[in-house]
Amino acid sequence: MTRSELVEALAERRGVSREQAEAVVETFFAQVQETLVADGRVELRGFGSFRVKQYQAYQARNPQTGEAVAVAPKRLPAFKPAKHLREALAARVGQALGDEE
Fold this sequence. Notes:
Largest sheet: 3 strands, antiparallel
Shape: extended
Number of domains: 2
Number of strands: 5
Strand content: 25-35%
CATH superfamily of the largest domain: IHF-like DNA-binding proteins
Helix content: 40-55%
CATH topology of the largest domain: HU Protein, Chain A
Strand order of the largest sheet: 1-2-5
C-alpha cells in the first residue's frame, strides 16, 4: 500500500474529503518521524512499535576487490510487530500453506 492509497482508503472509509484524509496521514507520519528523530519510541497497540536502533562502526569487505571498507556507526528505524499482528500473519500463512496441500 502506498501513501496515496492509504489516503484514499481513509477518505473512503471515514467519508471525509481527500484533502482532510491527506492532512491526517501527513500529520501522523510527521509525528512518528519527529518522535524517532528525538530518540523516542512509537507504540501502536495491536500493530507494533517503532524505535531507533544504534549500530556500531565495523569493518566490511568489498566483495569485488576484497578491500577493507570502514562502515560508520548509524542509527536506523526498527519495527517490532505486536503479538496480535504476528499471530494474524501466522494464521494467514497457515491458511495459504493448507490451500497448497
